[in-house]
Every structure is written in structure tokens, then in C-alpha cells.
Design the sequence.
């Protein structure tokens, strides 16, 4: 028999059931169910204990002290955000990777020795120069459809004109066709140019994205024989490409038909993957012409920008201004003027070097965030380390034996107490960091409000602020989870009381049965004695 109940508290509702076994059910099944229920109730009590903050005054003092020490480390050793140095180091690192990758190809050194006669005389190439490595990779690691964006754009314009003519437009001017569609057929979408250019085609072509989707897109191009570009102002354009011959790179062979198909697919896949990696490396520093002219070049988008671009193509996002903002950040950079993406108070973080959001800029930003993460990690280690030592000593003094230590109370993870301590320490760290940034900004700016805001933002530790937000979120989440568990346990206690009552009734029945048995035996003996007396 089953009885359903529910209990509400603070807007949360808990439903539970009491199940009383039928008379036909076995006694063992009933006992097993009761044992399982009590085990789950004990586990719930342990979970509530884990979600309860047991920090005392010493714990709070330790958390505050660790936050202050980490803040001092950040002020003295980390200093302010240095985008110029980070971008310079990123360029050097990328250039080194490109040259080393080219040297791994056995064709590279002989190719360099063959040299060039562009200077009216034969001259070998220097294999250690970036210019030589990029030129080699561009020549030997091609992707189908690369640099076909101009032809694709022309094809897209022609298709758009044909589409506009079907809706009543008369003429051959693209801009007039766009104006006509916006005026007469606005419900079909905001008609704009796809604005795919030399500076954006690496972002607009998914094949150039250093992500899994980028590799898949490159493979799809092999099947379809067309490259596809997604402009920032809506609409996708395609262009026919020359698909690579897989057999030139393949190593697997088979005489059976199915084996040939399998070998061809495997060879072709690794060919695409190899060419894809090599081609992306050749594009990291821009084209060989850009390297010769010592300009930044278009580069390729990093994983962050690539992911954002792929998300911007989703329905509901592609019709917003988000894709256009991505284009500005990638093509022109971050800042004010020059078609750049204006991030307001964050603009100073990208001053001092070319801020176009390609993989080199992403690496520079990652480098600075990694520097800022150092004091944050030190703060975390100090808090958790002191927590472990203090709880370990307490357990040793209480248990007097290492084998009896409750390690759940010692390990500084997955409990509300350490989460609360980390929340306090990270909050104090952020306050110390912000106070230091304010003081230094006031001293450096000398009353100039614009320079003050710039100096202040360059000193703020964004990783520390992010860690504080996560810590607060974890603390609040544990509090809500504890509330839900307490409501569930309160409901479970009702059932536990019912089980206790049931056990008392069962024990009373057993005693009564035993008493009745004894009385019956006494009555039988009395009857026997009476018979003997008569």
C-alpha cells in the first residue's frame, strides 16, 4: 500500500511516498526496503553536513590574510597589463612555430637550396627566415578554395542581381538592387553586401578556422567541390574549387572495391588534415608578400574568434549586429576610429600594438591573462593548503591514529567550508587589487580623468574578479542545495518516525505473542496437575 505526501517551504515543494508492504509481500523485502531507506537518509544527513559552512574565526582570518598576501604579490610582481610586450612575444613564438614546421618537411631544405633568381642572380633562400618558410608552406600546403573569395563574391553579386530581378528590379547596379529590395521587400530580410574582403576571408571561410568545425568544413569542401563564405552582413556565397587528388598523398592500397574506397577515404582524410595544418600555419603571419613587406598581414582567427564566428551563423544571432562586430574586431582591431570595434573602457588593454583579433592577438591576450592568474592560483593554494594542515592536525589530536582520520573533513575540496574561505580570500584579493589600481592610477594620471581611467583598467586583475564571481556562485549554489536537502530530510524524518512506530508495534506484538505462549503453557501444566489431584 502506498501513501503520497508533499511538503512546501520557501517556494520549494518536496514530494515523497510511504510504502507499506502488502500482506503477501515477504518479510525480507520489507526489511530490505526499510534498510535502504535508512541508508539513503543517513547519506542525506552527510550531504547536508558537507553543504554546511563550519568555518570559524581562525578560518576567516586565514582567508583574509591569504587574499592580502596574494594582492601584494599581484601589485609587486605582476604589475599592469602589457599588450605591447605580449604581442611582440606572440609574434616571435608564432614565427618560430612556422619555421620549425617547415623544417620538418623533407622538401623544405632542398627547396631553399634551389633558391630564387628574382634579384637577377641566383640566390639560395635562408631556411631560418620566416619569409622562406611562409612561401614554402603557401606553395606546398594548399587548401581547395583558398583565395577564391573574390570570385565567390562576384558569383554572389550576380546571384543577388538575378534574385532582385525576379522580384521586379530592373537594372544591373548592385547597390541599386540592394536599395530596391530593402524598400519593396523588407520582410524578406535586410539586404546588404556580404563584404567579404582580403582582410576577412580567413574569418568568413570556415576552412581557415583552427577548430574541429574548421577541419570538418575543409573535408566537406573535398566532397562538394565548392567553397563557402559567410559574410558579416548576411548571406552566404559559394565558388567552385579544384578538389585535391587524394592519390598523390595516399599510402593505403587494396585490390577489392570496398577496400579501395576505404583506403581512398583514409588517405584522403589524412591528406586534408596535413594540408589543413600546414596551410593554417602559413597564414598565421599573413601571406609571403605581407612578410616581405614587414606588415602584419591578415593572419587567421584563433579558436576564440573562430568559435564566435561559428556561433554568429546560428539563427537568431546572424541577423543581429554581432557578426558585424566580429568583422570589425578581426579586420580592423579594437579601439576608436578606423572602423575598429569600440569596447569603451576596455580599449586601453589593446593599445600599443596591432590589435586585429587574429591568432597572434589571441595568444597575446592569453599570455596576459596567464600572468594575472599567477597570484590567483597562489591565493587558492595558500587557502586550501592551510585548511588541509589545520584540519589534519585537528583530526590527529582527536583520533590519535592516522587510520581513523575522516579524510572527507581534511581534503580541501568539495565542501562548503573551503568554498566560503575561497570566496572571502578571492574577494579580499580583488579589493586589494582594485585599491592598488586606484592609488597607482591617481598618482600616475596627476588629475587627468582620461589617463586615470586608462591606468586604472591596466592595473585591474580580471582573472581575480572572475574567480571571485565563480566562488560566490558556488557558495550560493551550495546554500540553495542545502535548503532543498533539508526539506527533503524533514520529509524523510516523517517516514523514519513511521518506521520507528512500526518497529515498536512489531516488538510489542512479539512480546504479546511470547506472553500468550507462556500463559498457554502454564494453563496446560495447571490442567495436568488438576487431573493428577483428582
Sequence:
Amino acid at each position: 500500500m502506498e501513501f503520497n505526501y508533499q511538503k512546501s517551504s520557501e517556494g520549494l515543494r518536496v514530494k515523497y511516498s510511504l510504502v507499506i508492504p502488502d500482506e503477501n509481500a515477504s518479510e525480507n523485502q520489507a526489511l530490505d526496503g526499510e534498510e535502504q531507506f535508512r541508508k539513503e537518509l543517513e547519506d542525506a544527513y552527510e550531504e547536508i553536513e558537507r553543504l554546511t559552512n563550519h568555518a570559524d574565526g581562525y578560518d576567516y582570518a586565514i582567508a583574509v590574510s591569504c587574499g592580502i598576501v596574494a594582492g601584494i604579490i599581484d601589485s609587486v610582481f605582476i604589475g599592469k597589463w602589457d599588450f605591447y610586450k605580449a604581442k611582440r612575444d606572440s609574434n616571435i613564438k608564432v614565427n618560430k612555430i612556422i619555421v620549425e614546421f617547415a623544417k620538418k618537411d623533407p622538401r623544405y631544405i632542398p627547396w631553399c637550396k634551389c633558391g630564387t633568381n628574382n634579384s637577377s642572380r641566383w640566390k639560395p633562400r635562408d631556411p631560418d627566415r620566416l619569409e622562406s618558410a611562409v612561401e614554402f608552406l603557401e606553395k606546398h600546403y594548399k587548401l581547395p578554395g583558398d583565395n577564391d573569395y573574390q570570385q565567390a563574391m562576384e558569383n554572389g553579386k550576380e546571384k543577388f542581381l538575378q534574385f532582385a530581378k525576379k522580384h521586379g528590379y530592373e537594372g544591373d547596379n548592385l547597390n541599386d538592387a540592394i536599395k530596391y529590395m530593402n524598400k519593396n521587400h523588407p520582410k524578406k530580410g535586410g539586404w546588404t553586401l556580404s563584404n567579404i574582403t582580403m582582410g576577412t576571408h580567413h574569418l568568413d571561410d570556415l576552412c581557415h578556422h583552427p577548430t574541429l568545425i574548421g577541419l570538418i568544413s575543409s573535408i566537406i569542401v573535398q566532397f562538394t567541390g565548392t567553397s563557402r563564405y559567410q559574410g558579416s552582413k548576411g548571406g552566404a556565397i559559394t565558388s567552385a574549387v579544384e578538389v585535391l587528388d587524394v592519390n598523390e598523398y595516399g599510402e593505403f592500397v587494396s585490390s577489392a572495391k570496398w577496400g579501395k574506397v576505404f583506403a581512398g577515404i583514409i588517405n584522403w582524410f589524412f591528406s586534408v588534415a596535413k594540408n589543413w595544418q600546414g596551410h593554417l600555419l602559413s597564414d598565421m603571419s599573413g601571406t609571403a608578400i605581407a612578410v616581405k613587406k614587414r606588415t602584419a598581414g591578415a593572419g587567421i582567427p584563433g579558436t576564440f574568434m573562430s568559435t564566435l564566428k561559428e556561433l554568429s551563423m546560428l539563427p537568431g544571432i546572424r541577423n543581429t549586429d554581432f557578426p558585424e562586430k566580429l568583422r570589425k574586431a578581426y579586420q580592423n582591431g579594437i579601439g576608436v576610429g578606423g572602423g575598429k570595434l569600440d569596447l569603451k573602457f576596455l580599449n586601453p588593454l589593446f593599445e600599443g600594438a596591432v590589435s586585429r583579433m587574429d591568432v597572434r592577438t589571441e595568444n597575446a591576450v592569453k599570455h596576459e591573462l596567464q600572468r594575472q592568474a599567477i597570484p590567483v592560483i597562489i591565493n587558492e593554494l595558500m587557502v586550501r593548503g592551510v585548511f588541509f594542515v589545520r584540519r589534519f592536525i585537528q583530526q590527529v589530536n582527536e583520533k590519535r591514529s592516522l587510520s581513523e582520520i575522516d579524510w572527507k573533513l581534511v581534503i580541501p575540496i568539495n565542501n562548503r567550508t573551503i568554498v566560503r574561505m575561497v570566496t572571502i580570500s578571492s574577494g579580499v584579493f580583488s579589493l586589494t587589487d582594485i585599491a592598488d589600481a586606484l592609488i597607482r592610477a591617481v598618482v600616475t594620471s596627476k588629475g587627468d580623468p582620461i589617463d586615470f581611467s586608462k591606468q586604472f583598467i591596466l592595473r585591474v586583475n580580471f582573472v581575480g574578479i572572475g574567480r571571485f564571481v565563480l566562488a560566490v556562485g558556488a557558495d550560493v549554489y551550495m546554500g540553495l542545495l542545502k535548503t532543498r536537502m533539508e526539506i527533503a530530510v524533514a520529509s524523510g524524518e516523517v517516514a523514519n518516525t513511521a518506521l520507528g512506530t512500526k518497529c515498536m508495534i512489531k516488538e510489542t506484538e512479539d512480546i504479546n505473542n511470547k506472553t500468550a505462549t507462556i500463559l498457554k503453557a502454564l494453563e496446560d501444566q495447571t490442567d495436568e496437575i488438576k487431573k493428577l489431584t483428582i
The CA atoms of residues 275 and 531 lie 112 Å apart.
